[in-house]
Amino acid sequence: MFAKDLGFSPTDILKMHQGLKRFVSDKINVAGGNRISQRGMIMTGNIEKKKAGGFERIGDILENTLKQWSREAGGPITRLWAVWDEAVGEAVAQNAQPSCLKNRVLTVHVTCSTWTQHLQFLKSDMIVALNRAAGGPLVDDIRFKIGDLES
């Protein structure tokens, strides 16, 4: 199963990958010659663990990272996904989709630069419609970015 099948956008996957790299580099200090066993254990005699207690399974690290970046039920981005089509209309929904919400700034992927320009003019109306449909003030600003739309 792929992360995209679980409902993660390409942006989410990139953030998870970067988060995992930081998490792993924080957990171990690699001295060289490492390999990962089929059981998901980091195997080497030259690893100095920062945390006592033995090896940590790669699967556990991935699970924790996925939990950190997953879209929790009832979370703000999930509510925006649920009301998106109704709030912005069919034509916009076919050419633009919410990607992430951070600090009340919604990033929206659009199909082309023409839609980016068009949606800039509709931005304030979209913010009002999204907040009304979501049942509260979730979005203060919208950034439009050309990117892949989820199917």
Key features of this structure:
151 residues; GMP Synthetase, Chain A, domain 3; alpha+beta; 2 domains; 7 strands; three-stranded mixed beta sheet; 19% strand; two-stranded antiparallel sheet
Strand segment tally: 7
Helix/sheet category: alpha+beta
Question: Mean pLDDT across all residues, rounded?
Answer: 75
Q: What oligomeric state is this?
A: single chain
Strand order of the largest sheet: 5-6-7
Write down the overall geometry.
elongated
Description:
About 17% of the residues have low confidence. A hairpin with a 5-residue loop joins strand 2 and strand 3. The two termini are 16 Å apart. The strands form three sheets. A three-stranded mixed beta sheet has the order 5-6-7. It has a two-stranded antiparallel sheet with strand order 1-4. Helix 1 crosses helix 2. It has 151 residues and is an alpha+beta fold. The chain folds into two domains: 67 residues, no CATH class; 71 residues, GMP Synthetase, Chain A, domain 3. It has five helices and seven strands.
